[in-house]
Amino acid sequence: MTDLPSAQRAPVQDFYPTRLRSAPDALWQPRKEAVVKGRELNGPLTRAQLDEFERKGFLFIPNLIRGEELKELRQEMKALMEHDNFRERDFSVTEPESQEIRSLFAVHFLSRRLGELAKDERFAGAARQIIGAEPYVHQSRINYKPGFAGKGFNWHSDFETWHAEDGMPRMHAVSASLILTDNHEFNGPLMLIPGSHEKFVPCLGETPANNHKRSLKAQQVGVPGPQALTELVNEYGIEAPKGKAGGLLLFDCNVLHASNANLSPDPRSNVFFVYNRPDNRCQTPFAAPHRRPGFLVHPPGAQWTPK
Amino acid sequence: MTDLPSAQRAPVQDFYPTRLRSAPDALWQPRKEAVVKGRELNGPLTRAQLDEFERKGFLFIPNLIRGEELKELRQEMKALMEHDNFRERDFSVTEPESQEIRSLFAVHFLSRRLGELAKDERFAGAARQIIGAEPYVHQSRINYKPGFAGKGFNWHSDFETWHAEDGMPRMHAVSASLILTDNHEFNGPLMLIPGSHEKFVPCLGETPANNHKRSLKAQQVGVPGPQALTELVNEYGIEAPKGKAGGLLLFDCNVLHASNANLSPDPRSNVFFVYNRPDNRCQTPFAAPHRRPGFLVHPPGAQWTPK
Predict the structure, then answer these.
(1) Lowest-pLDDT choice from A98-107, A173-182, B24-33
(2) Is residue A253 within 8 Å of A175, Cβ to Cβ?
(3) Rounded to a whole number, what is the distance in Å from the CA of B153 to chain A's nearest CA?
(4) Three-state SS at B183
(5) Under an 8 A CB cutoff, do B264 and A233 touch?
(6) Which of A149, A186, A191 sits opposite B263 (nearest CB)?
(7) What is the pLDDT of residue B307?
(8) Where is pLDDT greater, at A43 or B101?
(9) Which helix (H) or strand (E) holds A136?
(10) SUPFAM superfamilies in the record, alphabetically (chains A, B) (predicted)?
(11) According to the model, what pLDDT value does residue B6 have?
(12) ipTM higher than 0.90?
């Protein structure tokens, strides 16, 4: 797809006000967009899988990648995490209390292998079926939660952040997280509230300048209040998909998720692509004083290299 | 049992040096005491239960307390946690980042009902069978982990702390934790390393003065190193007993345990008695500059009232 400069000039309505100064009348508002929008398009997901994604806001596909391919991807991750040129750069984020790398961003530009993976039909095709258009990569990263040292993160909707801080207008994005280590009960697996993707929970508190420098380590702004979370968990429960390395978790941009600290010796890592629709490209932030840096927000057709 | 002043005067050998200035030659040393020492004594535990405790260092008894008795105990806990006279006292410890009560100590003195419970044969009788003598209560507390706000704690052996900071000579103590709320995967249940009670892992770092003011909120001294933890988890694994309110967890004083944050709306609470042998009463701390306050360390036959 080509860039659409006219879309940038058009005034963009804020369908999801957030980072509010005072508590809103309602704990949440209903989602305005369909969840699965490309059932008629080509792609790897079955009708049953699309139904499950629509209902829960996520879909876990165990053992999608195995054997030699998995081994190569794990080696690639290791090489990227240990790359001397990537240390102490803005796109590599360390743990709040140590110098261990927690997230490495823009990995589909940093690595040819991961650039190819981002275009792989098993990932991009699934995204096409879900968002209903040819996807582009809005963000990519490797998350790494070291044994014993990896902290968790609070409940949040990614869309809430991308809308407030990056100017993503609508809920037309999906994340694909390929787990590269076994995920079990004790190494801080992703927890999700199934069904929460149907509700947008506005968050209290204005966004500080350069919030990402803090929020990528430990998010404090853009976190739903306890009352909304309590009602949603009481209604929908919590699920934590677990499984062997090579499983793929697809999850909607607005599903609430969190994770706990890694209290086991086993690291937990994944490679993560966010697919967005070109007609939903990011504009001016809806609730933040400045744009975030380029390693967090790639426009359609972007090229990016570390500065 | 009566106090034994002669035991106080005898020089006490330090069988378990810890809080070391430099790394020891070995990651751990073997335990010197038997685990189950009163098989011939009266008590509620079966031979199979004692075998399981001996092997794993803990035993979970689901649904020990039910119905009206459980309801009354939950009401008693609530009343204690909400008691105005207990706020901002040294024996009530708040969360590291909020004013919510995390632990309330000396509860068998604060509450007649819990004082009776501490003597209840289902608890004290089990302790007798394990430690091999008529037990006294070395410490008691209610732990409360509020929904969303409750933090976890790092891997540690209670005995390591009691030995270093309270002067408990030997491994002759057992904890009885009655869970008063349902324990599930997402509200930060206790995790244990089964079998780790057979090894004493000395910890690095000298104990600061008044360490308990910090350690009861978030423990940083008295935490085993990552190499010992990795080897122990790789050998023994991790277990997290879960179940309905009313279950009882008995665990050895030296079994390594930890817990994660509570990411669910459901609070997690328990009432907790530590039973010790009168001939193992606490002496001078083995590795700390001062004794800890009385609400943490009760001698045999003690009476205690809040000051």
Answers:
(1) A98-107
(2) yes
(3) 10
(4) strand
(5) yes
(6) A191
(7) 77
(8) A43
(9) strand A136-145
(10) Clavaminate synthase-like
(11) 43
(12) no
A186 closest CB neighbour out of B149, B191, B230: B191
E strand or H helix at B119: helix B112-119
Contact A263 B152 (CB under 8 A): yes
Angstrom distance (rounded) from CA A177 to CA A274 = 9
pLDDT digits (tens, 9 = 90+) for A182-218: 999 999 999 999 999 999 999 998 888 877 777 766 6
Q: Which of A156, A118, A155 is nearest to A304 (CA)?
A: A118
Match 């701390």 to its residue by tokens.
B285
User: What percent of chain B lies above the pLDDT cut of 90?
Assistant: 75
Number of CB pairs, chain A paired with chain B, less than 8 A apart? 61
**For residue A11, what pLDDT is reported?**
62
Distance from CA of A191 to the nearest CA of B (A): 9
Prediction pTM value = 0.90
Which residues from chain B sit within 8 angstroms of residue A258, using beta carbons? 263
Residue bearing tokens 């990896």: A150
Segment B263-283 shows an average pLDDT of 96
Distance CA B105, CA B139 (A): 8
The tokens for B39 are 């098989």
Backbone CA torsion sign across A276, A278, A279, A283: positive
Report the alpha-carbon angle A25-A27-A32, nearest 5.
Answer: 100
For the segment B219-247, the average pLDDT, to the nearest whole number, is 92
Chain A: residues touching B (Cβ < 8 Å):
147-149, 152, 155, 185-186, 188, 191, 226, 229-230, 233-234, 238, 240, 258-261, 263-265
Q: Using a CB-CB distance cutoff of 8 angstroms, which residues of chain A are in contact with residue B152?
A: 260-261, 263
Minimal-distance CA residue of chain A relative to B152: A261
- Please provide residue B148's backbone torsions phi and psi, each rounded to the nearest 5 degrees: 65, -35
Subunit contact B260:A229, Cβ cutoff 8 A: no
Q: Which residues fall within 8 angstroms of residue B230, CB to CB, at 6 or more apart?
A: A147, A148, A265
Mean pLDDT for B54-61 is 98
pLDDT, residue A203, reads 94
A167 φ/ψ sector (left φ>0, alpha ψ -120 to 50, else beta): left
Q: Do A229 and B148 touch (CB under 8 A)?
A: yes
